[in-house]
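=== Structure Prediction Worksheet ===
Name of assembly: unnamed complex
Input type: mixed (protein and possibly other molecules)
Chain count: two
Listed entries:
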Amino acid sequence: MRAPGAEPGRPELLCGEVRTALLHSYDPVPHSSAAQLLKLRGDAPVLLSERPNLHARSPEVLTGVDCVLPSVSGARTRCVGTVRARACVNDGRVLQAAGYFGVAVAQGGERRQWSHYLARPGTVETFGRLRHDDIVRGFLGTGQTAAGVLDAGATAERLLTRVTAHPALDGNRRVPFKSRRTRLRWTARAAPDGEAVIEGFTLAEGGLRTLALRLPASTLAAPGVVAAFCEDIAQHDWLLTNLVHLVERGRLGSADRARAVRSLSPAIDQLLHLWMPGARVAKELSPLWDVLEGEPGFSRQWQTLVQRIRDQLALHTISLLHAERVPAEHMTTH
Amino acid sequence: MTSVFHETAAEPQTRSVPLSHVSLELGHLYMEDFAGGPERLREHFAKIAPWAETARAAAAAAVPRGRPRISTCFLIDDYFTRFSSPAELVPMVLEAAKESGLVIDYLARESACARAGETDVARVVEQRLVESPAPGSDGRRPPAGEVGWLSNGARTPGTSPLDVPLQALSPRTPWQPPRETAARRHSVFVDVELWDEPEQRRVWSCPFLAAVWQLARLGLLRHRGEPLLVPQDHPGAFPEDWDALPSVIRLNERAAAFSAYRIWSLLPSRFLPVEHAVRVILEQTEVEPGPLAQAAERAMAEGITLPEEIPDRIAYVFLPES
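=== Predicted Assembly ===
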């Protein structure tokens, strides 16, 4: 019934969803306030990191589930266990919430005492055969997750709502620009030859992205590390999505350059300095970033956009200088 | 390859605590026991003594090598009712135990399980509750918990204030029984009150404080990585005021560590429902991974396999009341 080499209780497959949004605040929040926003529990600290960028991460919270796994074939595989969720704030500007879980095969066919599942937090155990392909395709599918089907995105969304509703953000409901939210659904399963590879990265409609990974068993055993990699990809995809959008709305090259530059200023103030791919990615996963840099070429597109913005600024500066000089010349002729 | 760069605020830290092999709890003392006078206490310890000896022998036999480390403890309720004073009571308890050949290594105050110093100990544990999901829970909603209550299954529909609108819509819904989630065919459904708030002041229930107590005895209680209910040495004369007494005091200088891999509670049988409730709570408590891993690693180094589920680390002896 099981894949060869699989052990009961050991996750064979990881699934998760990251939701990325602009933090609801006009100015970036200071690092200490980010810690306040992410204090989901009093007993565990918010982890704060200042190098190579400002990153605050909440303690993880667990949600118990007893439902069926996603599937394209319509197989109703019951699973019981917990889903992890955590939120992070990057450079006081970008808010991310992630829900993720590992899938393992249960020993026996009955649901066990709940303490059994709490002893393996973040893992759901399935009864019956584990069809990896079916689950991966079901999880990465673009459709709505039906009721009764495990929804990692919903746990992430709940966290996102909770942080956004934090009283510390009250009275500061304005945002510097209209942003788009993105969600990245990801799966990771064992690599047949033990080498980490990206099987596919897809941009779908409605801000949905999907990422299918194959990873060595040692990496699969560290779900938090994989989730951090996916958060990093999600953040940079979000930055790119929003920068593209800002540049598009700026209608560069149109007659009113001052207006174009004005509409780009949120990008300059808020986004340009946030680009730092792979900043918090474990060494064993960093080669995967290189793959995405080759195709579709995240940084290539980002640099091109940044260059365009700087060109606009340069042209605008020149035209301002020119405009200043013209009246001055007028005065000398009279 | 290890990293050359570290940030302490970015890496979770867990301070470890010393661990015995077994901790034996020699009883809880409540107002009614005290009201029964020293005689009642002597009876209690006389009844406990042979079982304490048995538990000690069983615990020692399970230690694969080296000298068994076994400590004893005793809990006094100063939370629900304040009676007597440490100066009067503690020597009386110690004397009564001694008459039955029992040594109490550590003495703890129940109120410390609610609050110790600046820390809301009970809230720390409450925040770690992860409710067991009813079948059909898909992660969209957190379990439909009743505030201040925790059950081991699904309540009868329509019995919760949240269900009232539902009931109004279909007044003829037939009654459905509650159900224990992990039932073996038939249910033993338990709904545990964790606290109430008369006059806006939170009062934790006895089972909830007992769950905190058992976690402390297992060395699994932490607040931001720091252990809670750490024993302090005997302060000399016992004070007149309970608040002047440390949360947990060490009475015996040569005692093995307070916390242990496994714990035994030797209690009168009226505590059975309380301890059932404790198990319902502990079954739904997510213990911090740091102290769990520390205990597991050290046990393994001593050739001991620890049960991974917390309630399985607790053993009981329930004694007749009279």
